[in-house]
Specification:
The complex is a heterodimer of chains A (about 300) and B (about 300). Chain A is about 40% helix and about 25% strand. Chain A is α+β, with helices and mostly antiparallel strands. Chain A has two domains: about 110 residues, Particulate methane monooxygenase, b subunit. Chain: A, domain 1 (Jelly Rolls), CATH 2.60.120.570; about 100 residues, no CATH class. In chain A, strands 1, 5, 9 and 10 form a four-stranded mixed sheet that branches. Chain A has a four-stranded antiparallel sheet with strand order 2-4-7-6, with no helix packed on it. Chain A has a three-stranded mixed sheet with strand order 3-11-8, with no helix packed on it. In chain A, strand 6 and strand 7 form a beta hairpin. In chain A, helix 3 runs antiparallel to helix 4 and helix 4 runs antiparallel to helix 6. By secondary structure, chain B is an alpha/beta fold. Chain B has 13 helices and eleven strands. In chain B, strand 3 and strand 4 form a beta hairpin. The two termini of chain B are about 30 Å apart. Classes of the chains: A alpha+beta (about 300), B alpha/beta (about 300).
């Protein structure tokens, strides 16, 4: 058992060392770039389950490059990657790089995709920086995908599968036992919990944090139609559409018009009036904005 | 008004908007662009649309101040001096290729722009109200020109960079004006309308956070910068606020929003910054640097 543990530790250490080397290599290959654009977009804001759509990552840099390296693509959980195409075109004004991922969704619902991250040395400051793209949303309708039918059983394959599962199970049991013994041996004088301590409450169902916060902010704005409340709602809406610090409403509209954020942008436009109008008109402006916010 | 100007000028929406906002903000305009981009026509169309008088002066190296402001002429019959007023006495004066005239002529014009009056001999004459100077500069032929000092450029509320039209716009130009002089819009508004718009613009509200945003934008030009030797003055702060107010008024709002400020900043700032030699050696243009500066300031 101890030998097995030592081997496991050795393997983990080797993997760790590899990761460090890989990280070091990545950091060394960062290039100086004037990044002018780094954006995600979708060719369709709404699709049905199984319908292919394109996620397009567009980057523009002032430099002449052959490929945009050090890009971390967004998490595509719940989506199936059907293909990936990369292309860089040089022009007088720099290089345009476009990566097009063909995806389809496994289940219905709204999915936020992004941000993608480009790591480079920002040529304007000379410092390494992560350039984050915007977040795009796709609305998926239809029925969830039915798993493919099980193929005819093959006795040989079944036997191999059973053996592999047994070995994996035994390995897991061994690791768990070793961890338990190691943990008990290192454990200090533990204090027993009080016998009357109530059991912890069951874990809450997963709730979209932003929507809950938004509902609370809108309710507070409805109760108390002040500029400060309107500013808070505006900040939450900007966060929803992935606004950067220096982006105005016009930028957000231009960037997200095709991404299914229409209702959010309409609400943002309405609440912006309440955030910047004359003091005497704030209450009226909030009243005009509420129908957009309650959609 | 913009639609009326659009009947004469194809495309150039940004130029026409900036021209109109600057007119409402009671500021003078310098237009920079290659020859043949309808800079002169845009100024003529604006003057015609607001029903004002329009005069054009082609600036040349042999121009004299009296060619701009006017002069005193001795009348032999009456034995007295009479005053002949120069072309500066117009509601819209187009100073074409302003950088081709020597400094004394530029100064005569710029004094009138600032003081809104000129002195000829012993007499002082008030300039018409509204009084708008639109000056053009050609960025390509710099031989034999007298570059305007930064202090004089600061007198212009905005500098508008006129770009080449798109292919579609150029097709529109060919279709609309093939061989014929374009008709100017007339009777769209009056001088009284313009005065009323100016009064309305002054009443447009700027919320405290937006006022700070304007100040932060101008302050960003004064922070140590790799390509900027000297930043913009508080006159730029006032200019951005005026332009933002005019833009809000044209959008039928009684208050300014961040987009008004952000859109007003480039034309106000681009001619007020002193760029150092590195912009030349690294082949950078003012537009890129100003855009980066603006992008570095968070929107409230």
């Amino acid at each position: 058992m101890a030998r097995l543990a030592r081997r496991l530790i050795a393997v983990a250490a080797a993997l760790g060392a590899l990761a460090i080397v890989a990280e070091g290599t990545r950091a060394q290959t960062l290039v100086n770039l004037h990044v002018r654009a780094f954006q995600l977009s979708l060719d369709k804001p709404s699709v049905t389950v199984g319908e292919p759509f394109h996620l397009i990552l567009h980057g523009h840099v002032d430099e002449g490059i052959d490929a945009l390296d050090n890009v971390v693509l967004p998490n595509l959980a719940g989506l199936e990657d059907l293909g990936d195409e990369r292309r860089c075109t040089r022009a007088k004004t720099g290089t345009d790089c476009v990566e097009t991922l063909t995806l389809d969704a496994n289940a219905p619902g709204d999915r936020d995709i992004g941000p993608a991250t480009l790591s480079a040395i920002d040529a304007t400051t000379g410092k390494p920086r992560n350039f984050d793209s915007n977040i795009v949303s796709v609305h998926v309708t239809g029925q969830p995908k039915v798993p493919a039918e099980t193929p005819e059983p093959n006795p040989l394959t079944d036997l191999a599968w059973w053996a592999a599962r047994s070995i994996a199970f035994l390995l897991l049991v061994a690791i768990a036992l070793w961890a338990l013994i190691w943990g008990l041996a290192r454990r200090p004088h533990a204090v027993a919990p009080p016998p009357s301590a109530p059991p912890p409450p069951p874990a809450a169902a997963p709730v979209d944090g932003w929507e809950t916060r938004m509902r609370e902010l809108v309710a507070a704005l409805e109760r108390e139609p002040t500029r400060a409340r309107a500013v808070a709602v505006r900040a939450a809406l900007r966060e929803r559409v992935g606004a950067r610090d220096a982006e105005t409403l016009a930028d957000l509209v231009a960037r997200n018009a095709a991404n299914g954020h229409g209702a959010t942008l309409a609400a943002l436009s309405a609440v912006e009036r309440a955030a910047f109008c004359e003091e005497a008109r704030v209450v009226d402006a909030v009243r005009e904005a509420l129908p957009f916010l309650n959609r | 008004m913009l639609a009326a100007l659009g009947t004469t000028i194809v495309g150039q929406r940004g130029t026409l908007e900036a021209l109109l906002y600057a007119t409402i903000a009671n500021g003078h305009v310098v237009l920079e662009g290659a020859p043949g981009l309808a800079k002169t026509l845009a100024c003529r169309a604006l003057a015609a649309a607001v029903g004002g008088t329009f005069k054009r002066v082609q600036f040349t190296p042999d121009l004299l101040p009296s060619d701009i402001v006017g002069t005193r002429i001795f009348d032999q019959r009456s034995g007295e001096f009479t005053t002949a007023l120069g072309p500066i006495f117009a509601n819209v004066l187009l100073a074409d290729e302003i950088n081709r005239a020597p400094a004394k002529v530029q100064s005569a014009l710029l004094e009138g722009m600032q003081e809104r009056q000129v002195t000829i001999g012993p007499q002082t004459f008030a300039l018409p109200d509204p009084f708008l100077v639109t000056a053009t500069m050609n960025p390509l032929d710099s031989d034999g020109t007298y570059a305007l000092p930064l202090a004089q450029m600061d007198r212009f509320l905005v500098k508008i960079v006129v770009e080449y039209p798109t292919i579609e716009e150029e097709l529109g130009i060919l279709d609309r004006f093939g061989g014929e002089a374009p008709a100017l819009p007339a009777g769209i508004a009056s001088m009284d309308d313009l005065r009323r718009w100016r009064q309305g613009a002054r009443a447009v509200f700027i919320e405290a956070r937006l006022a700070r945003y304007i100040v932060n934008l101008v302050a960003a030009t004064r922070a140590p910068h790799a390509y900027i030797d000297r930043g913009a003055s508080p006159r730029a702060t006032l200019a951005i606020a005026s332009m933002a107010r005019a833009r809000a008024l044209c959008d039928e709002r009684s208050f300014v929003v961040p987009d008004d400020v952000r859109a007003s900043a480039p034309p106000v700032l681009r001619h007020r910054l002193a760029f150092n030699y590195r912009t030349l050696t690294e082949n950078l243009d003012a537009e890129t640097i100003v855009a980066e500066l603006i992008a570095s300031v968070p929107v409230p």
